[in-house]
């Protein structure tokens, strides 16, 4: 559960970074393997999740849903590596 809270905190920090000229972005990795990248767009209050490996970008207007999607990707990768 603390991992999910960490993801939520990182996304909230992105929302609070209003002084940026470019969209704030974060990468999420497991054991050095980049899984996805998230950008936050202030003008539309949306997150864009780019999942590496499937070459898709997903738009979310809800922080919690975005965090759950990232958490699922991380958990899936951790299960593969165990």
UniProtKB/TrEMBL annotation:
Pfam families: DUF1797. This is Uncharacterized protein YkuJ.
